[in-house]
Amino acid sequence: xxxxxxxxxxxxxxxxxxxxxxxxxxxxxxxxxxxxxxxxxxxxxxxxxxxxxxxxxxxxxxxxxxxxxxxxxxxxxxxxxxxxxxxxxxxxxxxxxxxxxxxxxxxxxxxxxxxxxxxxxxxxxxxxxxxxxxxxxxxxxxxxxxxxxxxxxxxxxxxxxxxxxxxxxxxxxxxxxxxxxxxxxxxxxxxxxxxxxxxxxxxxxxxxxxxxxxxxxxxxxxxxxxxxxxxxxxxxxxxxxxxxxxxxxxxxxxxxxxxxxxxxxxxxxxxxxxxxxxxxxxxxxxxxxxxxxxxxxxxxxxxxxxxxxxxxxxxxxxxxxxxxxxxxxxxxxxxxxxxxxxxxxxxxxxxxxxxxxxxxxxxxxxxxxxxxxxxxxxxxxxxxxxxxxxxxxxxxxxxxxxxxxxxxxxxxxxxxxxxxxxxxxxxxxxxxxxxxxxxxxxxxxxxxxxxxxxxxxxxxxxxxxxxxxxxxxxxxxxxxxxxxxxxxxxxxxxxxxxxxxxxxxxxxxxxxxxxxxxxxxxxxxxxxxxxxxxxxxxxxxxxxxxxxxxxxxxxxxxxxxxxxxxxxxxxxxxxxxxxxxxxxxxxxxxxxxxxxxxxxxxxxxxxxxxxxxxxxxxxxxxxxxxxxxxxxxxxxxxxxxxxxxxxxxx
Length: 650
Known about the structure:
Residues 601-650 are annotated as: Disordered. It holds the Pfam family Abhydrolase_8. This is DUF1023 domain-containing protein. By secondary structure, the protein is of the alpha/beta class. It has 16 helices and ten strands. It has an eight-stranded mixed sheet with strand order 3-4-6-5-7-8-9-10. Strands 1-2 form a two-stranded antiparallel ribbon.
């Protein structure tokens, strides 16, 4: 008799398990849309909280019902295990903001998914009621599942009405339907920095307003800017976008939050235009300089032949003027030659795209002159599953970008793609700040021994990652890793603190002289990893340079991954540049980390050290999340290593 009862309960538990596995994730896609800022402002916060609560209640209901049946089985002497019905939802970390707007296309998909979920959950609630009733089990679980379905169907009507208003209010021929809601909600959004006025003026071709947006972006003060620019740009439509690109390609190409393909198109146009203009100007200046030098020779010869002191005085004055003019021309030529070398370096970096199976490179920023700035991406970050941003360090300048900097980003793409060929990878080389130079060692602002250069670069990097979040397609998940090499890790650490819990999903510090913060907990990023070669002297500078805590020290609190000794003498600093060497353990581990493959890291050799980690299980969302960005469970583990010995140097 007991055996029959146990068998009946086990069959019921099996049916419930199938039911829960089929329906526990019914609201996940809606959560993804909301976390990716498909709807912000207005009633969005209340809706997001209610959605998270219903999702948590739904999954808990299946869990509770399963546990009740399993308990009956155990009471009869049987064994039963109830699987976890909690699911993970991951997106680029959404940023809470005062901006209001709605992505109509994304919201249309959300409403469709919500309607389907409502119908399915209502039926699932009825089936669960029947199962529990047959077993004489009294439980609120069936009602909770059904209530989630009723709630979902109730929301559909309200949201469809909002979408209809948006579509009727805006001329879809001139404003992108995907973001027309900015006009509906945007007028009521707080706008302390006057972004609304600036975007309106820029849309009309006001270059001054466009430059003001770029300048505001550089300060990193407004966390909402990239999201608003993303909405504004798509609302313009192709015609207005093309006009702005033609009028100010360099400014348009610099705006974070715009689609990567559009930024690439604008920056490539700027690159071609600059190359043509500079080439023409150099030819003119060199011809003019040659003519002046010839005239100078004649004056010198004339001075040597004349005996009239007055004529010598006149030719002397002319000679001085010619020398001054030639000097100015040569200075201009020198500056233009530098820009041409910078253009060549960017072209070399772009040429790495399309090689060895890599996607074409995208040019996301370009500033010529001085140290120069550029951002290059192998793969489209707007649609990638895994995005890596490489930030270089000391002595980096645009003139040398075609060498190690673009090569390292390309090698990162190669490795991450090799380990996960079914994922879309984007690997970005971000030279968007003035890296410190050894030539400026005695200058407080430019020395690599202090942090001002990192502090100035941090807002620029924070604004850039704001743009990655804003531009990424909401229909796909993304894992964002920011990797700082050398002094670049100091800049990364400073930037992370400007956007706590929303900067990135993961940080990697390589050969770091200082992480820009005393300890890893100060960075506001759940997953932080450190790699340092035993013979990398730069990585030990954190002990003497005021660049924040030394990430390689145990008191910093970050797990380390294995990097082999390169065999180079410490004093040559050669090991500092070999983290991306082909087939190296460090490059393999960087690829695994970017892909989230913590269990596949190349381990430290010997029994005394290990990089093995056991990621914690996914955390279910809270019933009443404090904000939309914290309402999500995450599949990204916050890895903690097993106890490891002190790093070299301690």
